[in-house]
Design a protein that fits this description.
358 residues, alpha/beta, Arginase, Chain A, eight-stranded parallel sheet, 11 helices, globular
Length: 358
């Protein structure tokens, strides 16, 4: 059927179709405007595990989401399609993650890797594998961009969007990253891993087209990261500073407007789920007390979409499922909202907000 025929016959109030793509949508990849690239990868994680299972958890939870989004009621009609992950990515992630464990253990014991040739060789092999992952994501993103699709990324740990940023940099010569996270992720080759999840924003700074990184919700960092953050291309809003301002009377709206004003004209959003309060993501790999609510994050994104700034893409990372589907549920709902703000910013028809009791 054509997309027009599907729209005429599809009932968005029915249960999500389990044999359909993400959110139970009935469209093919060709008929979908937004392509989600899943990256089930978590090789360099140094604490909790599970981020590689994030895309699958989000997919499974997405079928329970009602398609009538209050703010973007026509969003589902655009089509959102979950692509296949780059070839054998999860298998490679599992393999190289096993090689990482003894390296981290050795470092925690105070050993110098150069004195242990086998570990040094493993480290080099892991860095090559991570480099291959970055390139695979870059190529997959470029493939869909060249076909006129709007592309977003679903991790995986926070190392996964680097290739995505590199792809965006081929199209945009000046853009910023709005980075929501508990961590700065500005470590330089953390634990020897060039593409560590804790180094993603440092690596992003090596892309000259990224003119600004504005960080929100930060509450955990090291001395090295503070030194990197003094770079005039980085602006940090710590959770402590935001909370103090709120306690002293500054509204979230005012804070959001200040954050948005500091961004360049074109913006990519990078959302590490651990930026939120831990009850939204209890199984994420590196939880830190404090944070912001789901509603605060959604409001910031919606506020950004209403300005003259252009959202050119986004990534959602570090969703790690537990014994139930709660983390996947939160991730799926945030993904749907982020698709809405992205589409709205791109001047796509998402409908008008549904107003109740007016």
């Amino acid at each position: 059927m054509t997309k027009e025929q599907i729209l005429e016959n599809f009932d968005p109030s029915q249960p999500g179709l389990s044999d359909a793509t993400i959110f139970g949508l009935p469209f093919s990849v060709e008929q979908s405007e937004i392509i989600v690239i899943p990256v089930p990868w978590e090789v360099t994680v140094s604490y909790g595990a599970g981020a590689s299972k994030g895309p699958e958890a989000v997919l499974n939870a997405s079928f329970q989401i009602d398609l009538k989004h209050q703010e973007f009621p026509e969003l589902w009609k655009l089509g959102i399609y979950l692509d296949k992950a780059p070839s054998e990515l999860r298998k490679k992630s599992k393999k190289f993650k096993k090689q990482v464990a003894p390296i981290i253990k050795a470092l925690e014991s105070g050993l110098i890797l150069d004195h242990h040739p086998s570990l040094a060789k493993d480290l080099e092999e892991i860095n090559y594998a991570c480099s291959d992952m970055v390139e695979a994501v870059r190529e997959q993103t470029l493939n869909w961009m060249h076909k006129g699709k709007k592309v977003v990324l679903l991790g995986g740990d926070h190392s996964t969007p680097l290739g995505y940023y590199q792809a965006l940099a081929t199209k945009y010569d000046n853009f910023g990253i709005l980075h929501l996270d508990a961590h700065m992720d500005l470590r330089i080759a953390y634990e020897g891993f060039t593409y560590s999840h804790a180094s993603i924003m440092y690596n992003a700074l090596q892309i000259p087209q990224i003119s600004k990184i504005v960080q929100v919700g930060i509450r955990d960092f090291c001395e090295q990261e503070v030194e990197v953050a003094l770079n005039d291309r980085v602006l940090v809003h710590t959770d402590s500073d935001l909370k103090q301002e709120a306690f002293e009377g500054k509204t979230w709206q005012q804070q959001c407007d200040q954050i948005i004003a500091s961004l360049p004209e074109k913006v990519c959003i990078s959302f590490d789920i651990d930026g939120m309060y831990s009850w939204y993501c209890p199984n994420t790999g590196t939880p830190v007390p404090g944070g912001f609510s789901f509603e605060q994050a959604a409001y910031l994104f919606s506020r950004l979409a209403e300005t003259n700034k252009e959202i050119i893409g986004f990534d959602l990372v570090e969703v790690a499922p537990g014994k139930d589907d709660w983390d996947g549920n939160v991730g799926a709902r945030m993904l749907f909202h982020m698709c809405g703000v992205f589409a709205k910013s791109q001047k796509m028809n998402v409908g008008n907000k549904i107003q109740f009791n007016k």
